[in-house]
Each structure stands twice: as C-alpha cells, then as structure tokens.
Amino acid sequence: MSDLSLTILPETPDDAIAIERLHERTFGPGRYAKTAYRIREGVTHDLNLSFTARVGTLLVGSVRLSPIRVGKTPALLLGPLTVEPPFRERGIGQALIERALKDAKAKGHRLVLLVGDEPYYATMPGPVDPARLLVAELKPGAFDGVSGRIRPDYKHD
After folding, report:
1. What does the pLDDT look like over 91-142, one tens digit per residue?
2. CA-derived radius of gyration, the chain
3. Residue 50: which of 6, 8, 87, 111 has the closest Cα?
4. Partners of 115 in the beta sheet?
5. Cβ neighbours of residue 57 under 8 Å, at least 6 residues apart?
6. CA 21 to CA 44: how far, in whole Å?
7. pLDDT tens per residue across span 131-140
8. Which of 15, 80, 96, 101 is at 20 to 30 A from 120, Cα to Cα?
9. How far apart (Å, rounded) are the C-alpha atoms in residues 68 and 49?
C-alpha cells in the first residue's frame, strides 16, 4: 500500500455528501446514464455492506453494494467503486472490494455482480461476460442456473 495509513470503515449516513461529491468528481454527470446507475435507481444501497477508505480523516474512496435480483435470484450489485485520482493505483480500490465481498459473504450473501472492466476487477472471481458483466460467487455454484433480467430488489429497502 506504499506508505499510506489506510482505514476501511463502514459507510455512515454522515458520509453521503462527501461520497456524492467524490462521485461527481470521478464519474461526472454522465454517470446517471450508465446501466449500473439505472439498475440502482430507486433502491438504497446497503449501509451494512458499503465502505469508505480514509487516509487519516480524508475520505479517499468508497464502494457500495445494492440489493438486486437476477430473475428470481437475490444478489448484490457492486458499485459505484471510486477512489480519488491522486490516491489511485495504491491498492485502495482492491482493499474496498475485498472488504465488501468478505462482509457480504459473512452475512450470508451468495452472489455479487459488477458491470466493469475485468482487468481492473480481477479480484472478483467467476465467469466474465464479454458485455462487461462480472460475477463473484461467494458460495461455489451460486451462479449455476441463474438467468433472467437484472433489476433492483425493492424488498430490501
């Protein structure tokens, strides 16, 4: 982690404004047109599975997990994942993903999906679709036979 004193903490409601500003800086206004943002519309991310990265008191990164369904199968959608540009390429994004997946697995979740670039998200094991859909099975075989439309899981709000 190249001499950063990094702390990964659960997201709190008090982090919302700082995280939104981070998203604005890193993704810009076009983020709302992206598929993953559209899926997350109207469903609240799970604060128990969303984390911030801090160097001292400075928030430098964030990852969120939101409840979704693939057909009838419950799953989680990872993202947005973002790290302040000056702090990139130091393992912060990977640390956030690892913490989110570890806690999701510990809480009994079986499946996490992500829309992204496989080389960057190589820490997410599982099959990779050419259309950029990545799957992490938190329990072996969790993706077997899963099919259907990906949509928000409003039952968890």
Report:
1. 999 999 999 999 999 999 999 998 765 555 554 445 444 456 788 899 999 9
2. 15
3. 8
4. 133
5. none
6. 18
7. 567 888 999 9
8. 15
9. 13
